[in-house]
């Protein structure tokens, strides 16, 4: 598996996290911005919002660890990469869907707003895992499957000899809670084929913001990503294969559309 | 209490306590009630109850009455005369209450193996026989845990920590000691922790929900069973430094029993076999009556624990964390006395507070960082989600502020207070090439770095493995550092930490609920 977006030429070296770059128009319905997140209480679960250019946008509701979009954090700014949808407002905010959220690592104490519940902003749908008795509704999606016993999983009839895995990250992010399932999948596959080689390539991303600026990930992030994945697989006792660990320090070219896809590590496991 | 009287009371507290203890020594010549001595050799009944302030705790041997004579859990194995049972007493739900510690001091004048210098003393270099040398054990039920610094893996290799650590305060003297301290030839950090129950272990070692090759909190490799290679739930001990009961037994034998060399495989097998079949939970409530009636609440009592499903995440639809059924709910209880009915209704209300009373949980590492957002409007049961025990199902270390400042309980320093801090204080500085802790920044002050002393990770500073909730009434004080003397203090800590605003009724109901587990 490779990134959906084809590789393009590299931007000139950028020395700052945020750099001015030639203005490139991005799609009208695409919004990329950095802001303090806001949390609004409701009669059920809170919803998460962010302001941009005087408008309020809905990011997600509080859900659980299995949700495709998980909420940001107060105390930190959030990078929002979203598409303006035509859905009715939720919690007073224009809905961004799909949306990719990156909690920025630096602490920002100014991001501290909790808005009280207002009846007009109550959710018009039943959220998963509401507090209190919930009438039998399933409260959570199944978590990542437990790793099988060593030497365990049944072999399918035809198993590919090579498989590519892509670990996607938040901006400036490394492996986090939501990667344990994919890592387990890699491990299971590598063990099942008695993998001889694991090739790992880490990449560094950039994001074209809606204000025309470009945010570039930290300079060493590609190396850190690649080395971390190797460390994790070795740490899970996958020590037999030969590891080839590489990284690309030059940031990807940002187009403001699907820049999140470029924050990745590609792992090729071969028999 | 006015400041002068408070000063007087605090100032003479230790003296009074010592006097009372010595008087008790004079009055008693045998073992204290319920105390199980190493090598005692009497059978452990198939089901036995032991009194405590809130009723009786029940201890069930699922395999029937247990012959303890010659059994390695009950026999002294090392040089200091202790056995496993020394710190895992049946009367204390297979843990150890500070009350038992004090009674034992009084009964033996501090000569019981329990007070061995290696860890039953604030530091082994302190004067023997002086209660002040054992103040952390006598006052908070804490044992000294000495961990190598930098951390070492099971294979002996060194973990490169993400942070540096300095000693800010060292009341025990052990962290700056030339033999035992951070700058000694074998650099060690001494932290002080409570022993956990050696019971209900099918829950603490389950292979169910959340157990995988990688830790679901941060994606790091999970510890594996050295015998089978399988990932473990990493829920043993305060810092998950041992993956299995067998490894824990070996670790405890060396470090707490002072066994020279190693336990034999046969000894370990017998210890593990015992721990896998013993269950402990409150069996009787002084106010609500029997907790083990045949048609009683399905979560209560040790037999229900023995029959329960392990490794299951409780939820609010199909499987509660502690299912009580509806019989004790307000309006549902049909007891013969108003007092008993009221007590049972209070327990049921406490359950509902635990499960459904929302509050904003914020800035808690490995909870707010695992996809729930910060803050998240959830309930006690969000973190304490494991069916029947209230632990986290897997990889259950979390920072709720029990050891990290600014939330950890600290002695107020002012001219009217003569009490001194008892626990060490460390300054942890995350290295420049490491991301700062998302909620505490680059410099963290902590009484106990918790899991970080094993993993070396900045984000693990002050994270402690969530404990099981069973037999609580038999084993005060609470939290890994014994900072909550009572269940009420435990609840008050949460109320302060998360600005919950519990009503007086909610607090009392929670106390009654927790005390019935």
Question: Could you characterize the architecture of this molecule?
Answer:
The complex is a heterodimer of chains A (271) and B (517). Chain A has 271 residues and is mostly beta strands. Helix content of chain A is 10%, strand content 31%. Chain A contains 2 helices and 14 strands. In chain A, a hairpin with a 6-residue loop joins β3 and β4. Chain B is α+β, with helices and mostly antiparallel strands. Chain B has helices spanning 3-27, 84-87, 98-108, 117-120, 135-140, 201-204, 245-255, 265-275, 301-307, 338-356, 368-372, 380-383, 452-455, 487-498, 504-515; strands spanning 47-52, 55-61, 143-148, 163-169, 188-193, 278-285, 289-290, 359-361, 376-378, 397-398, 425-430, 443-446, 464-465. In chain B, the strands form 5 sheets. Chain B has a 4-stranded antiparallel beta sheet. Chain B has a 3-stranded antiparallel beta sheet with strand order 4-11-12, with no helix packed on it. A two-stranded antiparallel ribbon of chain B has the order 3-5. The longest helix of chain B is centred in the first third of the chain and has 25 residues, at 3-27. Chain B starts with a helix and ends with a helix. Chains A and B meet through β7 and α1 of A and α11 and β9 of B.
Regions with little confidence, pLDDT below 50 for 5+ residues of chain A: 6-17, 19-23, 138-152
CATH superfamily of the largest domain in chain A: OmpA-like domain
* Terminal residue distance of chain B: 34 Å
The H-and-E topology of chain A, N to C, reads as: EEEEEEEEEHEEEHEE
How many individual domains of chain A?
2
Helix tally of chain B? 15
Q: Helix fraction of chain A?
A: 10-25%
Strand neighbour order, sheet with most strands of chain B: 1-2-6-7
Question: What is the total tally of β strands of chain A?
Answer: 14
Name of the top-level CATH class of the largest domain in chain A:
Alpha Beta
Could you state the oligomeric state of the chains shown? heterodimer
Whole-angstrom Rg of chain A:
21 Å
Shape of chain B: globular
> What Rg of chain B do the Cα atoms give?
22 Å
* Euclidean distance between termini CA atoms of chain A: 17 Å
What is the helix tally of chain A?
2
